[in-house]
Amino acid sequence: MSQIVGQRRDSRWYALVVLCVGMLMIILDGTIVNVALPVIQADLGFTQSGLAWVVNAYLIPFGGLLLLAGRVGDLIGRKQMFLGGVAVFTVASLLCGLATSQGLLIAARFVQGVGGAMAAAVILGMIVTMFPEKREQARAIAVFSFVAAAGGSIGLLAGGVLTEAISWHWIFFVNVPIGLVAFALAIRTVPGERGIGLRSGADVVGAVLVTAGLMIGVYTIVKAADHGWVSGHTLGFGALSIALLAGFVVRQATVANPLLPLRILRDRNVAGANLIQVLMVAGMFGLFFLGALYLERVLGYDPLQIGLAFLPVAVGIGGLSLGASARVNARFGERPVLITALVLVAAGLLLFTRAPADADYLLDVFPSVALMGIGAGLAFPAMMTLAMSDATKDDSGVASGLVNTTQQVGGALGLSVLATLATSYTNESGDALGGYRLAFAVAGGLVAVAALLAVVVLRQPKAVREELVPVPVG
């Protein structure tokens, strides 16, 4: 019997590896494209404004469909949703690599975003279900957090290597063998479980409202840099997005089988952790994007050097997420660990504000990215554990989709707000370095606010409190 139990435990960890491979493929695609954009522009003849759609065509469906995909995964089965997402993403990646025109590349990127949302939305829910025991779950979430957090910085390096060594087409072709292997292994290793059934909650109206609201909201954010934050375009689409999302909330409060049960958001840890993630990811995404521009335009780094410059972030996240973070969370609890981690990330961002025009990497850049790597490596596992702490088995898919949604919305928000601030300051003052410094300062402020919210809003999960507080004897 013990051998059988051991085999089952081993199979779960194999399944975790397969799920993380699928997640890595999706996360890498979010940043690997950025390094290749100038080459894609020259090859396909994009204008500067048109080039942005190579990124936005992926970001809009990915951010907009995560919540819906998570709920549908609960209904039809999360394994089926994951397999479908990997298949769609893989086929779309092949089409992206084969693209010889602007229209085909943008259309294929949109389909990539759909597939990415289908797969990513249910992964965390499957992990929580597969590892119900507290300490095993902490280790499993730590591995997932490493992949989700480090994949972005690894993508910068991979994008530079593939673009310079072969061609930009291979930043998409590389997904095809990975996707095929992940699909085949997932069939064999990932445990299948029946969904709760479409009759249990196929809220079509709610799905239309939230999907349209999120998609229009993400579109508004990513286009605000072009039209301006107080333009009629931004205010009009922003108001439409808010109206649709408000309608969704009203719908969820009254419908019998809601897409997003509002009871999930009544939990202060779930709501607080997701809000904190929006602020933290906004700050970090802003640094990755504007930091890459600073390294390229001010310091003269090439794509490969930019990827290497951010490598300490991936190393820091990996070194902590794959072992130390689970032990630290078990020893001290997720809440104090998250607070400390957010302070470290904020310090790294604020330290970047002093980077000069003739910066020395070891003295001026490395301390910032190292602090961010350590902080993020501790923060993401703790934050995801808190966000999933009270999700039931039936709601774990939608809770997972919510975590991924707030991450993508935070990234889009941070990218647009900080890029707009940097551009506006540079246009008014003629000081490009000052614009970068302003954006880094605001990014650090966002994460500092996240740390304050963690202190005020979050509570240690009940199960962990019971483990940490000794039971009186007698």
Automatic annotation (TrEMBL):
A GO cellular component annotation in the UniProt record: plasma membrane
Top-level taxon: Bacteria
Main location: membrane
Keyword terms: Cell membrane, Membrane, Transmembrane, Transmembrane helix, Transport
Membrane topology reported for the UniProt record: Multi-pass membrane protein
Location in the cell: Cell membrane
Spans traversing the lipid bilayer: 12-39, 51-69, 81-100, 106-128, 140-162, 168-190, 202-222, 228-250, 271-294, 306-324, 336-353, 365-388, 409-426, 438-458
Domain Major facilitator superfamily (MFS) profile: 15-462
Gene Ontology molecular functions: transmembrane transporter activity
Protein name per the record: EmrB/QacA subfamily drug resistance transporter
Cited PROSITE patterns: MFS (PS50850)
